[in-house]
Amino acid sequence: xxxxxxxxxxxxxxxxxxxxxxxxxxxxxxxxxxxxxxxxxxxxxxxxxxxxxxxxxxxxxxxxxxxxxxxxxxxxxxxxxxxxxxxxxxxxxxxxxxxxxxxxxxxxxxxxx
Length: 113
Known about the structure:
- InterPro entries: SAM-dependent_MTases_sf.
- Pfam families: Methyltransf_23.
- There is one protein chain.
- β2 (61-66), α5 (69-79) and β3 form a beta-alpha-beta unit.
- The chain has 113 residues and is α/β, with parallel strands linked by helices.
- The chain has a four-stranded parallel sheet, with helices on one face.
- α2 crosses α5 (69-79).
- The chain contains five helices and four strands.
């Protein structure tokens, strides 16, 4: 584990509470123009699960990955989404996705992937 993952594991509850209700409707609309209706979306660095849940409510098939086991647990419990605990830099897709959503998560990568 690294400092960033440790931080998010410790602060998971407060991070979840402060981000789960944020309105990203405009950003979703810009992104979804490029994803076929009902398409598969990976929310990379899904945090609270807010965005994957929003995509699922719109009829897409979204799931998430996050390095924080605690945030993954909260996302699963509160939004009933599939979340895999995994660092983005180590993630390998086992099937194709129509879109990869990264909201405030790429900044945590040490090197380009």
